[in-house]
C-alpha cells in the first residue's frame, strides 16, 4: 500500500474531536464533527499511531469499494487519520440488553455472514472478527469494522497478538510458529460471534478469556484434544499433546444444544459448522448464507426497527444528524493525489533539465 492515499490535510484543521470512545495500542477513536458546524458529533475519527496498520485499513476500504456492508469513509487525513461513519452501537452492546428476538437474531446473523462473505470474496482475511468489531447503524445495517489487521489470504503472518483471545482457533493456539493466515481462521471467529448472537451474548468460556494460555486450556476442555495428520504436524503439538491428551471428547454439540435451547436444530447446525476443530471442515460464509435456518420459521426479520427502538429507549440515546459530506471515493482520491504528485515531479524535472542545460 503506497502512501499516495493519505492527504496532506491536518485533521485538526477540519474536525473537532469531542468524546474519546476507545484508546488502544495502535489507535484512538473519537466522535467528532466538522469544525464550526452546529449540533452534536456526526462522525467517528480514528487516529492511528502505526502507519502500517493505518495503510492496511485504507487498502481494505479501497478494495471493498464503498460497499454498504462496511463503514462509510468520509475523509483520509494526514497523521494516518480516517474519518468514518458514526454508528449506534456494536453487537456486544445491543445484546447487553438481552431483548433481541429470534427473528432479529437471524437478521443480524445473515447480515454478518453477508459482510464476511464480501471480505472473503475480495481475498482478504480480517484477522480480528469479534462482537466489538461488528457495528449497527441507526437504520439497522450491520457493518464489520476495524481493518487494521487485514491481510491477503494465505500469507504467513502472526495471528496471535492480532486476534482477540476467545476468538482464536485451536490450530493457531497450538502452533509455536506462524501459520498461513487464511479464511478458516475468520470462520472460527465467526462461529463464536454467531453463537453469541443466538445465545444473547453468552460467552463460550467463563470466566472471560484474557490471554492465550487460558484460551488454549478452555478450548481444549470443550473441543477435546485434536489428533490426525494436520494437528500432529504442527510445531508445538508434541508439547501440547502431553497435557491435552486426557481431553478426548468433543463436547461442543451438547453445549450448543444447551446454550441455544430456545432455538431449533437449524441454528445449532449453523454455528457447529463453523466451530469445526479441523480447519478444512469449516463451512464458508457463502455456503452458510444458504443454510436452512434462514428459510424456516421464524424467518429473519425484514428490518431491525424494533430492536433499535428498544435499545435507544433503554440507553436514552438520540440519533445524531447526518454528516454533511459525501463518502470519499478512495480510488479517485488516490488518482488525484498521484496526478498532483506527477505535476510537482514534472516541474522538478523541468527545472533540473534547465539547470543541466545551463551548466553545459
From TrEMBL:
It holds the Pfam family Pkinase. Residues 341-360 have a biased composition (Low complexity). InterPro entries: CDK (IPR050108), Kinase-like_dom_sf (IPR011009), Prot_kinase_dom (IPR000719), Ser/Thr_kinase_AS (IPR008271). Keywords: ATP-binding, Kinase, Nucleotide-binding, Serine/threonine-protein kinase, Transferase. One of its GO terms (molecular function) is protein serine/threonine kinase activity. One of its GO terms (cellular component) is nucleus. Residues 333-360 are annotated as: Disordered. Residues 15-295 form the Protein kinase domain. Belongs to the protein kinase superfamily. CMGC Ser/Thr protein kinase family. CDC2/CDKX subfamily. This is Protein kinase domain-containing protein. It comes from Laodelphax striatellus (Small brown planthopper).
